Amino acid sequence: MSPVHKLEIVVDKVHLREVTRLLDDAGVSGWTMIPDVPGKGGRGERTGDELTGVMSNCYVFSACEPEKTEGLIEPLRALLRRSGGICLVTECKSVIH
Amino acid sequence: MSPVHKLEIVVDKVHLREVTRLLDDAGVSGWTMIPDVPGKGGRGERTGDELTGVMSNCYVFSACEPEKTEGLIEPLRALLRRSGGICLVTECKSVIH
Amino acid sequence: MSPVHKLEIVVDKVHLREVTRLLDDAGVSGWTMIPDVPGKGGRGERTGDELTGVMSNCYVFSACEPEKTEGLIEPLRALLRRSGGICLVTECKSVIH
Amino acid sequence: MELSLIAENLLAAPVLFFLLGMAATWLGSDLDVPQSIARGLSLYLLFSIGIHGGYELAESGWTAGMLSILGVAVLSAIIVPIWSFYILRQFLGPNDAGAIAATYGSISAVTFVTAVDFLRSNEVEFGGYMVAAMALMESPSIVVGVLLARLSSEDGNGRPKGELWRRLFQEAFLNGAVVILLGSLLIGLVTGDKGWPSVEPFAGAPFKGVLCLFLLEMGLGAARQVKALAKCGPFLLTFGIVAPIVHGTGAVLIARLIGASAGDATLLAVLCGSASYIAVPAAVRFALPKAKPGLYLPLSLGVTFPFNVSIGIPLYYALVTLLW
Amino acid sequence: MELSLIAENLLAAPVLFFLLGMAATWLGSDLDVPQSIARGLSLYLLFSIGIHGGYELAESGWTAGMLSILGVAVLSAIIVPIWSFYILRQFLGPNDAGAIAATYGSISAVTFVTAVDFLRSNEVEFGGYMVAAMALMESPSIVVGVLLARLSSEDGNGRPKGELWRRLFQEAFLNGAVVILLGSLLIGLVTGDKGWPSVEPFAGAPFKGVLCLFLLEMGLGAARQVKALAKCGPFLLTFGIVAPIVHGTGAVLIARLIGASAGDATLLAVLCGSASYIAVPAAVRFALPKAKPGLYLPLSLGVTFPFNVSIGIPLYYALVTLLW
Amino acid sequence: MELSLIAENLLAAPVLFFLLGMAATWLGSDLDVPQSIARGLSLYLLFSIGIHGGYELAESGWTAGMLSILGVAVLSAIIVPIWSFYILRQFLGPNDAGAIAATYGSISAVTFVTAVDFLRSNEVEFGGYMVAAMALMESPSIVVGVLLARLSSEDGNGRPKGELWRRLFQEAFLNGAVVILLGSLLIGLVTGDKGWPSVEPFAGAPFKGVLCLFLLEMGLGAARQVKALAKCGPFLLTFGIVAPIVHGTGAVLIARLIGASAGDATLLAVLCGSASYIAVPAAVRFALPKAKPGLYLPLSLGVTFPFNVSIGIPLYYALVTLLW
Ligand SMILES: Nc1ncnc2c1ncn2[C@@H]1O[C@H](COP(=O)(O)O)[C@@H](O)[C@H]1O
Ligand SMILES: Nc1ncnc2c1ncn2[C@@H]1O[C@H](COP(=O)(O)O)[C@@H](O)[C@H]1O
Ligand SMILES: Nc1ncnc2c1ncn2[C@@H]1O[C@H](COP(=O)(O)O)[C@@H](O)[C@H]1O
Ligand code: NA
Ligand code: NA
Ligand code: NA
């Protein structure tokens, strides 16, 4: 098992592509996404299942090498400042196969 | 980045509103929810996608200030005792924006 | 609160039953699953929402006693080697009820 | 006579699709109706039966007879759970007894809809107000069952009383199925014979076909519940078959007494004989969290529902043809 | 005359289902249409209106009159957001003003579809090209609104300009609703009277019934937005009612000038008077992330949409019957 | 003659909607059919084709001719993957060759359904038992393809053999599509001309319209696969076009030999010429995890399916009209 950082991001669906592009550009080995997650934050409650689809969050996580986290934090922070949402970083271990 | 606790809760859908109210009352900055997650636990397997919707779990997580965790654990424990489900607490870091 | 390991697995939907059987056989107290999660990894992007359902991942997590992790890692590694996907292990605390 | 009705019913398309669904699950097929499609079909059936009922009510006007049948319906939704509770208490704790009593006091909309299709196929007439009867019977037993369980068990569960009952009434009486049924009934009544022809190609003609697909899904789900029946024990399994027969027969007799029509009597029997697996379980899970869903759900969905759809409906109707 | 038209409209099945949906949310019912069903119904309505319009276009052929009405449609989709922006700027910042201007310059397909049903019920004819008018009016205001907001606010938002506009045009002009509308219109036009009869049992006959179910869902959603209206303040609430009346009336007058038919004039009024709540919000969230969705969404979905469906449509039509 | 049939087919509504879907993806539109709606439509088409076929079978009764065509169908589902495997092995490893062989030995229900619509539009008759032929051809090639791959590669994959084959047979023969097809066929057969009229407004009339919407979704999906074709290389791309022509032509000739009708021959050609993208990929992913889905999926869905829907079907039919 090797130590990795798990980045978890909740962001407006409309900005999803920007998040995954940041991850791809940083060269992470992959990411997983969960679409349409309702939630509540600074900008109020978001039900996520409206017909309009406008109030929808999505959740993305990526297990990335610890040395890559550094370079990802700043652009993610800039994006979240613009769009709202959150980003968590957790230390964990990855089972290598 | 500031240290936060990530609370993760899996609970019967029918009790979701009670969980989010506990979180809101404790003054957490937000939460995110994933509806209809199948699973298996002490009370057997739950498929989550039945027409009746009666056997449905949901998953909620909240990044909250470590000092707020304390006050949340007891009421969550009481709720889970009644309704089943689980609650995990992980230490992680939040990217502030 | 007692210390537990959170195992997180992303795997091809077609191998889901093998993962949950491994978990069950190891005697974990439970698991939770999120179906149809899109993502990107070594084998390219997977949209998860195709009609064919062939390109679909699912995400499983289980909070298990730390002493059970050991025995789970090897079979999970073997499975992932065959099927692709990832497995993360995080230390966290479980609220006992 | 009765037997041929049952055999004929078993060869009707909707019932065959139900059996196909059960067989598919048993054989281990991955056949599966997406949950949102199932919920869409169910919404459609309630909408269709509601607006059609309202239109027929607009045609026929209100009569005294229909008031008495509505009265009987509501009464039975109160009495059935009470008497079921006392029988179930002989074998079960208060929570489980209350939950199952509530389940059997309420109704199964899909059983009703299947019965409507059965009557239409046999060209038996019935009143549009039977839809109102169904809507009225959905909720009372929830309150009765929870009340009985609470009275005979001393525990609180930490939740403030007022809040509990407020939410229980909301789940019982403002349940989505009740709202769409009563709402469509009212709209059918208001728009009457001006409205019906324009919605008929959607709300009327495809009804039986949609019912087939929906019963396929119900069969898939019911068969999954059958696997969970082992935990129920012989008493409950017997209850799951005897209760619908007793309640259905009782309903037929009372319907005869108050002079209802053959079609109305059959539907009343189906309502009294059927058990809920959506509205009641949802409310009961909240109000009686200690009651085991592993009992009331398999019993209602895995025993009583298949029994009614395949045998119960033609049985009640056979009884009616004997007595009318 | 006008009042009776409004009252009559309020008693039409689709509008009643819309009101039922609003009532259900207000009463706290858990009635709910699964999101994918709602999106499926909406797809159906666009498909149906598109292919039917194309078929009618194939029947009638192209005329000069229809070109002038398409021209007016596009023009209005450019002028309405400009003048709305300057009015809204008196009370709001540039981002919110731009977002709301874009919303009201664009159209609501469901309002259009409801108006089509209204005209068919009243046996008023209209041209198939009005579907093209709708599709053409969906996008321009997005570009206009975003442009105005950008010009009058100095901030960048860190995103490269080129990329922003590329994606904005894509979201505006290749929006799913535009593609399915224009595509179905074209296919209806190409297959003409050979194609239509074979798809009519799906694309034509069930139309009104599907509209009923869909408006039920719209009612549920609109009522949820009404709860968020408190934040909008009296000026915006007034705008949400006055804007459709002003834009609708203006459209009727211009339609009269260019000699459009009564049906076309009503639909043009509905298009000008309605506000978007799908295409525009999606594009605006991306292009003007600082505009508050808590303003433009409730206003469009919670005020203007219910107004148009219940009162606006018959009002515009009443005006037309006065002038034609 | 042939060319005019192809041109005509390209202007039929279902094919146009397929092309619309492909165009929408290529243009970068966000047009999208929710997955559960797509699965619901697909379920409907199988249900409709099955029950209709059963009804027609009940009308026509069983004949010797239909047994020989069923026999040819099953045989071809065994031979096609064998011979495809040996050709594919010239260029690919055993796993990929086995997977693609299984894919092309099986069938595409949507292609079949589109062909049915094509024949109905051209008023060509065909037998209800062709639905049974389709169901019988779905599974055998899965077993054949996996067997061939396993025999010619020495690796185990750590899974116990018995378990592998048990699950493979289950996925192959109890696949949802097979169950719903055979089940509906049987129910249509049993309920016969008593059952059909009552489900026809749902199962029959809307068929073509639903097919249009479904092919729209298929077009969206196929175009996404086209983007992945780069990895397939020229040999596979050629295979994706030549294989359906060869298999389809072969089927037409054999059908001529055994004296099948023109309609049956066309459908047999479509079955032999089409490739699976649901049942087979699912089974193959499990049984041959080393085969690359990036090859068999784009080839089947991005090349062969569009070819068959737009050109293949009228081509096979043109050949039939030449020979009959
Ligand atoms: N403390 C938190 N914990 C978990 N999720 C959060 C938290 N804060 C915000 N979110 C999620 O992020 C979304 C947008 O947050 P915001 O921009 O603060 O409104 C919310 O709807 C939640 O889904
Ligand atoms: N150890 C565990 N790890 C992950 N999820 C669990 C675990 N135990 C229970 N769950 C989830 O919580 C739900 C209810 O658990 P229970 O009340 O134990 O039946 C299950 O259906 C699972 O989704
Ligand atoms: N580093 C990662 N972080 C999060 N999810 C991943 C990661 N790598 C792979 N995945 C997930 O696992 C799936 C299969 O991965 P792979 O076998 O590498 O293609 C991907 O589609 C992702 O959903
Ligand atoms: Na009952
Ligand atoms: Na407008
Ligand atoms: Na084939």
Automatic annotation (TrEMBL), chains A, B, C:
InterPro entries: N-reg_PII, N-reg_PII-like_a/b, N-reg_PII/ATP_PRibTrfase_C. GO terms for molecular function: enzyme regulator activity. One of its GO terms (biological process) is regulation of nitrogen utilization. Pfam families: P-II. This is Nitrogen regulatory protein P-II. It comes from Stratiformator vulcanicus.
TrEMBL record, chains D, E, F:
Keywords: Membrane, Transmembrane, Transmembrane helix. It comes from the Bacteria. It holds the Pfam family Sbt_1. The chain crosses the membrane at residues 6-29, 41-58, 64-88, 100-120, 126-151, 172-190, 202-223, 235-259, 265-288, 295-319. This is Sodium-dependent bicarbonate transport family permease. It comes from Stratiformator vulcanicus.
